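Design job #97: recover the sequence.
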């Protein structure tokens, strides 16, 4: 247990810390309640519920903001500023101070307007995507861009507004470091993908061709979740237009989606969301509502989902275990071998337009497109009306394909309807981090691949719980990675991993 806070003059100062902690628990409880309403809006709410829901969410957002930025919060932080704190308490104060400083700089009216716009934009995006009508969504995107520029201006008027927004999702890694990693991925992957497309190696890419009814796919998704150890007593599986995870260590829910011609997409997204949920469910329950019971931001969160999706769900060992279950649900695939399945789930597509259906390599070029567009939008270098054409041009340049509709182009992702500018880079950062973590887990866990093939996932879950989940936000990103792996965060393990894996698959 952490020791009492001690001031510089030697007097005990537990009261200020305890009061700050209680305040944090209360405003985070309000945020958690808003999260449940947000989940309901995307999963179960009737279509006509948007006007009331937008007001509900904006009100809760405003209430939380007011609680966080109340004068008492600042006074407690100031009182603790000159004290010597035990490590855990110092981490709590550091994280609350960071959140308070940002929130205090932004008017509550703006926070409420952003929240209300997000609710309205979500409904508009869903309709625009269904109707292939970017023009109907454009005013909401324009408003989000304006509001988020204003937000960044309040936080720090002297800095790059996109860098300020990026820190909402990854406050511990600089935008310069992020851009360097994305550049390293691009320099590694573009020539590798060119080599793969020139390869004469024929993979078993048609292994799972056919029609796969969504009801049976949902049963298969539940099979997969049960297999890897999802705790249905603290979660549930539902369907949404864009797969996501929402919740905390007591209640963390996942969603997926189904395409009757592409069953691997649902399996991949389900296991991806399981990784998010496993992280949230593995956070210390006794610290719920405080930074010690919260995840270490989105790069780390994405590392957990990408680790399970790619290093487990796309492994030979997993398909040795899971293929019989797949074939029980879909007997028409009975002739498929483990190697067929492994090749099918790891094929590199030549013409994929959809990020959530992308292969492990081209995925990062999908991210680069979004990163460049949203950065330019926020910096004022790109007009909203030019987004569809710019998107299509970049896809043609980076991926060699051009969307024929905005539904399969710039309307495919939900993130901008929420105003989440700065989120996308964390997907690639998470993939890089996943490779670094898994590389060390393989060294630390005796015969990890054999355990997966035998359906024994406890060793991996326990390793991740010990090295990542239990720490909450105690450590900043690089420190967390260094403690888990012994090395600073870098792309080295990722580039080594993909070069070895795809070199073998495609005979490079």
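Job complete. Output follows.
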């Amino acid at each position: 247990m952490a020791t009492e806070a001690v001031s510089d003059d030697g007097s005990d100062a537990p009261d200020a810390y305890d009061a700050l902690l209680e305040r944090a628990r209360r405003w985070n409880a309000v945020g958690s309640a808003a999260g449940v309403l947000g989940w309901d809006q995307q999963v179960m709410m009737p279509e006509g519920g948007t006007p009331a829901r937008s007001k509900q969410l904006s009100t809760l957002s405003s209430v939380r903001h007011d609680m966080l930025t109340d004068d008492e919060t600042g006074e407690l932080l100031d009182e603790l500023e000159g004290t010597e704190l035990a490590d855990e308490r110092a981490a709590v104060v550091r994280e609350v101070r960071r959140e308070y400083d940002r929130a205090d700089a932004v008017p509550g009216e703006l926070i409420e307007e952003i929240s209300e716009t997000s609710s309205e934009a979500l409904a508009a995006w869903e309709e625009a995507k269904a109707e292939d009508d970017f023009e109907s969504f454009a005013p909401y995107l324009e408003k989000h861009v304006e509001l988020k520029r204003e937000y960044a201006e309040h936080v720090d008027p002297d800095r790059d507004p996109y860098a300020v927004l990026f820190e909402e999702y990854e406050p511990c890694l600089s935008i310069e470091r992020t851009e360097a990693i994305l550049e390293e991925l691009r320099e590694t992957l573009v020539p590798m993908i060119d080599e793969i497309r020139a390869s004469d190696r024929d993979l078993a890419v048609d292994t799972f061709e056919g029609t796969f009814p969504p009801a049976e796919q949902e049963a298969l998704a539940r099979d997969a979740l049960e297999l890897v150890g999802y705790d249905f007593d603290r979660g549930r599986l539902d369907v949404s237009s864009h797969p996501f995870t929402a919740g905390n260590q007591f209640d963390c829910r996942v969603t997926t989606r189904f395409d009757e011609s592409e069953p691997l997409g649902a399996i991949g997204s389900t296991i991806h969301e399981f990784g998010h949920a496993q992280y949230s469910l593995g956070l210390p329950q006794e610290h719920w509502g405080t930074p010690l019971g919260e995840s270490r931001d989105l790069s780390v969160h994405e590392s957990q989902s990408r680790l399970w999706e790619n290093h487990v769900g796309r492994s030979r060992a997993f398909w040795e275990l899971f293929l019989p279950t797949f074939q029980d649900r879909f007997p028409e695939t009975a002739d498929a071998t483990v190697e067929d399945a492994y090749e099918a789930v790891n094929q590199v597509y030549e013409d994929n337009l959809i990020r959530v259906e992308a292969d492990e390599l081209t995925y990062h070029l999908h991210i680069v497109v979004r990163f460049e567009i949203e950065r330019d939008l926020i910096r004022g270098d790109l007009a909203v009306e030019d987004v569809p054409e710019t998107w299509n041009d970049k896809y043609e340049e980076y991926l060699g394909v051009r969307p024929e509709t905005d539904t399969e182009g710039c309307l495919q992702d939900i993130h901008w309807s929420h105003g989440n500018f700065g989120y996308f880079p964390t997907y690639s950062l998470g993939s890089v981090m996943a490779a670094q973590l898994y590389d060390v887990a393989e060294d630390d866990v005796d015969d990890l691949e054999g355990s997966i093939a035998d359906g024994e996932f406890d060793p991996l879950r326990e390793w991740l719980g010990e090295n990542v989940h239990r720490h909450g936000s105690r450590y900043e990103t690089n420190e967390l990675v260094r403690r888990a792996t012994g090395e600073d965060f870098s792309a080295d393990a990722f580039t080594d991993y993909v070069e070895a894996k795809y070199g073998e698959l495609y005979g490079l």
